[in-house]
Amino acid sequence: MNNETFNPASQPSVPENTSSIVDSLAQLSYVIQSVLGRSGAVYDLSPIQLRLLGILRDREPSMKQLAERLELDKSSITGLIDRAERRHLVERIPSPEDRRGFNVRLTPDGRRIAREIGGEIERRIGELAGVLTEAERGQLASLALKVAEARSGPD
Amino acid sequence: MNNETFNPASQPSVPENTSSIVDSLAQLSYVIQSVLGRSGAVYDLSPIQLRLLGILRDREPSMKQLAERLELDKSSITGLIDRAERRHLVERIPSPEDRRGFNVRLTPDGRRIAREIGGEIERRIGELAGVLTEAERGQLASLALKVAEARSGPD
DNA sequence: CTATATTGTTTGTGAGACAAACTAAAAATT
DNA sequence: AATTTTTAGTTTGTCTCACAAACAATATAG
């Protein structure tokens, strides 16, 4: 039956015929996470470090903003940034408008790694998506984005 | 630009126009993981414990098979199952055909929790997918499954 | 100006992951 | 059959990651 996720019996809940989409989305997300994980591993980056670099590519958020975006406790962010800083991937910049706070940004090293690893991911996910036709890829991208942006909405 | 993931410059790699699908899939997978995480948290289950329960719903794999499926080291499985067993979610059953090995299966408690949490996930992802039309949901489910099964293929 | 709230760190605890060394049993060799 | 080699799982030690509670410094509200 090939179900490694969660589709309980069959009392449809919110929209009709939920369980199939639930299961396939969960399944897909594990596959993607696995690909991301392996890509990160090439550069010895944990999933959360990888995600951090991804976020910092075009932002210099405060510790607080990072906590919100990553849905982590602020004390977890302290540790995360400590470790990333120790590896010269990011740096804390004193906030100009709040003397308590810091903004976090990529170092040149961090930016380079982020770029390289981006290529790695591109390659691997591209390969994965290779089982689809060009039209299907477009559809999938658009539907995926629509769902992803449904919650918390576009920036 | 609302990109929190990874789409490096724009030299298409494998198929054409990769970067859009890469980004939206990565994005989607984070959203799904976040939903799964919150659902698990309701029952005080970590992401990996949650995934374990999902796998055990219709299997009684050996420790070794779990390691393969979860892509974890065998020693990580020992710890994972220890903790789950301590919480009476799963149990080790001595393998009938190999006196070194165990199969792992859900306890009745574990099965109940798995069922309940399944409903929780169903509800939350169903809600998320509510931004799509019924037709779109079908499309998405089918495309997602196709990609997910591309690697390692159906069981 | 004082009271309160907010930003981030520290400390302590536990889960989770890995690698290397180890035990017991199974499988392959001779 | 006896011996070697592989395999399944555990142990130990080390690190990352996450949280919560207590704390310091600064900002904001009254």
Put simply, the count of helices of chain A is 6
- Total domains of chain A: 1
Order of secondary-structure elements of chain A: HHHHEEHH
- Identify the CATH homologous superfamily of chain A: Winged helix-like DNA-binding domain superfamily/Winged helix DNA-binding domain
CATH topology-level name of chain A: Arc Repressor Mutant, subunit A
Percent of sequence in beta strands of chain A: 5-15%
Structural class of chain A: mainly alpha
CATH class call of chain A = Mainly Alpha
Strand order of the largest sheet of chain A: 1-2
CATH architecture of chain A: Orthogonal Bundle
Described by strand count, sense and barrel closure, the largest sheet of chain A is: 2 strands, antiparallel
